[in-house]
What we know:
This protein is mostly helical. It has helices spanning about 10-25, 35-50, 65-70, 75-85, 90-95. α3 crosses α4 (about 75-85). The radius of gyration is 19 Å and the shape is elongated. The model has no long low-confidence stretch (mean pLDDT about 80).
Amino acid sequence: MSTHPLVTQSEFVLVEKILISLETKGLKIQTTTVFLINSLTLYTLGFVWAEAIELEDGGKTDPKLLKELQDKSVVLNQLMKLLQDNRVINDKEQFFQERIA
């Protein structure tokens, strides 16, 4: 599913359902619609692939490395603080909430 273009009737029926749903929310089908579908599909598939692959070292970063990175980079320090304070958008917010406050 993630490695080939749409070719079957069932795949096109699924796209039709998605388009109808998006049209009811105000989407107008135009030249950028294919780009939109590709972007949403690739984002979702990438997210699924990232979740499906077992993380190296259980997904835990060495605390010494985090501190070292934070001390060396203002930008990474800002990002790490958001992660450490658990102030990031989680998967449920990404895929299920219409609006995040």
